[in-house]
DNA sequence: TATGAATGAGTTTTCATTCAT
DNA sequence: AATGAATGAAAACTCATTCAT
């Protein structure tokens, strides 16, 4: 009647994880003791487990088991389960903001820039399910862990700046209406991109239609871009 | 991560719960044996705990403690922690669909009907945070519990019918574009209403702006109605 | 994750129970309150449950559930789980001794009488599995419950008398050897008849041969009679 | 039926257990970390408790208490109560078969070999009460745990081979009859050796004679050997 | 006589964390 | 830097029995 360590069972279907634990081992030779690699390995496995099971649902044992190291190392490097969880949050939030930098939307025409931003946001959420899940999980905990992640706030302002720039240029060009708040717009875009990923399971069972199905993805992407553009566009 | 049985700590701030456990005791006198009341009482407390702590985070002891009964009764009526969780899901999903029935959108002009539907959806999510949180939690578990809730699928079709009716009438009246899918539209509306509630904590800390603040609520409500109407409206 | 009340699961395969609970309802009309019938019904169900699950393994709830009455009645009539168990023992032991009386072995030729006794013992054990199991269970508890069953000791002497009579007559007739102790012989016969029923499960899995299979039954019956007769017979 | 943790009360009287827990600690010094010893210690205590109380009757707490370790280790090594029970079964069954190997019956004259086998079987059951009780307990559970014990079936064939060899040689030598099936004969021998141990309590109270009394043991041993030899011997 | 609801004390199991090596 | 064994505290769940009707 043993249970075995099933670990991270739910929601590993679909386009799976963006993190391939175990075999990360890049760099030159396979040194016997490689602290950095060990840490990275733990972090990758933890990302999967926390994302799949939630903070309370995740099992330290389960994480340790899928690691190249032992449980002790996990405590050695991250201090506690919560410490590890925060490290995961930090890593994951860092990734998305880093990518957003590379968009160079400012060089595009406002409408095209807006389209590019929405498409990027869509694609990112669509692909980084772990990210979406972790955000969801954080919200269940009242965001109290992410609050402690240093440099979390600072990072997020950049998107707002991007949007403000787009809006300003669009208004100046007579393409966009002038009464749209940048943060509100960001919320609107996020909503549309986030919900279909984060709540796809209940949505799927409720309506017998998995929103993450490839065919739907294309349609949703177009729909969301369309909705956002209609929203910001100046009516004449 | 020590606990004590402080229970349901996170996220009980804001416009709190719609369920006032304990004092339900309606009917005649305070009968000592009132199974229905006992069940309802347990269910109400459980709704709060699960919604606040998640399925894994919730503590059976914590639920029992805030109940008029003992832990034993919880098992007597619901069989297990998961059984209780499912009962909560069933109740909560039942509530929203029941309310949707009373909208009588079909009697309104398509545009006004659409506005009414969106406003209702907005208000419901805005008020029923427990519902939003439970849906979120379910998605972390891959919706596997809600799948077992009988009559879950059936209930959800009604919204789609409502939307289909609105769309059809709007198209006929030349007010709406004809290329919108009802389920996609429902997803769009849900996204906009759900996200700002479900993820308000991370959003709040990221942008220093709590989307559930009363002043913002009014603005968001208008924005979402606007966005939806712009999306469905036929451009000439 | 409900467990349901599976109750009496193990070992109900094969030629099942000799007690048909529920529908005993004999006697004249179906009176609404029939204490005797209620008691008998409880006793029958309890026999099955105890026999299948053991004293500790049996569940009062499981018994009550398969009864026409409620759990309360069970306590009303039998006082406690143990009281009910003892009542079951009393009933079951009463049955076998009553049957033994009807053998009238004393009228038969010693060899034929011995054969008849062995065959009867064989058949009884073969058919009354509940009895065999309950004896087994009692032995796990050091026979401490059967000791309290009044008239238990008295009843058993009769078999010994029967054997003594057979032995004496057989010796007198020059058919049997004279150095066999009656109680020892009874033990020998019991052993042969009991073991293949009581331990048929482990025997079955160990040797891939179920000793209770009809074909084996015939062979075993003959073998045991043969073994006993060879044992008592005087060699010349 | 209140308990307290008096543990293993029934049936520890008589020539008690063959396993002396606690003080096993062989090997060099008293190392603080000695997994093998820890496991063996747990296993020994568990053997006693399960044998005395049955699977359902046994208390994990009671086992842990009489151990050098804590309850947690019990789960660490054996996974669950049932897992521990199975480990006990495995150990106990392994022991008897191992001993049987050392008999070297094949070197003896068929009659003497048969006598040696029966005497060995008798002695083993007479001494290893824990084994007898555990087999009994397993049968109450329909042998469903022993079935899962790998290598259980394989082990048992050896006895049959031994018997087949004895029979074949005895027939060839004109000493044994030729119509005896090896498995049936094994059943017969087991019956005689098992029953007087396993059911000695009910037998004792029924006939006021404890079959495990030293004086009776000698007599029974002779009787059983006699009965078996008479059964297999060729009559002329 | 009969019943469904209720319960306290126990029982198995789990989990994050630390110790000895 | 790394490890497998060990643990206390808590969590889920069960059970025989009794109460109010």
UniProtKB/TrEMBL annotation, chains A, B, C, D:
Keywords: DNA-binding. Residues 1-38 are annotated as: Disordered. PROSITE patterns: HTH_TETR_2 (PS50977). InterPro entries: Homeodomain-like_sf (IPR009057), HTH-type_TetR-like_transc_reg (IPR050109), HTH_TetR (IPR001647), NicS_C (IPR041474), Tet_transcr_reg_TetR-rel_C_sf (IPR036271). Residues 59-78 bind DNA. One of its GO terms (molecular function) is DNA binding. The keyword DNA-binding applies. The keyword Cytoplasm does not apply. This is TetR family transcriptional regulator. Transmembrane segments: none annotated. Residues 36-96 form the HTH tetR-type domain. The lineage of its organism: Bacteria, Pseudomonadati, Pseudomonadota, Betaproteobacteria, Burkholderiales. Pfam families: TetR_C_29, TetR_N. Residues 23-38 have a biased composition (Basic and acidic residues). It comes from the Bacteria.
């Amino acid at each position: 009647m043993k249970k075995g360590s099933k670990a991270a069972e739910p929601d590993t279907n679909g386009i799976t994880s963006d993190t391939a634990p175990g075999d990360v081992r890049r760099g030159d030779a396979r040194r016997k003791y490689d602290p950095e690699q060990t840490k990275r390995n733990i972090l990758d496995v933890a990302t999967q487990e926390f994302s799949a099971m939630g903070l309370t649902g995740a099992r330290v044992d389960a994480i340790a088991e899928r690691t190249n190291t032992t449980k002790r190392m996990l405590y050695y490097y991250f201090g506690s389960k919560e410490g590890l969880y925060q490290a995961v949050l930090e890593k994951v939030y860092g990734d998305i903001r880093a990518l957003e930098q590379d968009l160079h939307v400012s060089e595009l025409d406002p409408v095209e820039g807006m389209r590019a931003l929405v498409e990027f946001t869509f694609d990112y959420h669509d692909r980084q399910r772990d990210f979406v899940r972790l955000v969801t999980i954080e919200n269940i905990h009242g965001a109290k862990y992410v609050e402690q992640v240093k440099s979390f706030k600072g990072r997020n302002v950049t998107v707002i700046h991007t949007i403000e720039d787009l809006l300003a240029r669009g208004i100046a060009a007579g393409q966009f209406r002038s009464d749209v708040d940048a943060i509100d717009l960001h919320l609107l875009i996020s909503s549309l991109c986030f919900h279909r990923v984060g709540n796809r399971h209940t949505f799927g069972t409720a309506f017998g239609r998995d929103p993450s199905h490839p065919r739907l993805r294309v349609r949703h992407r177009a729909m969301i871009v369309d909705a956002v553009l209609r929203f910001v566009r100046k009516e004449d």
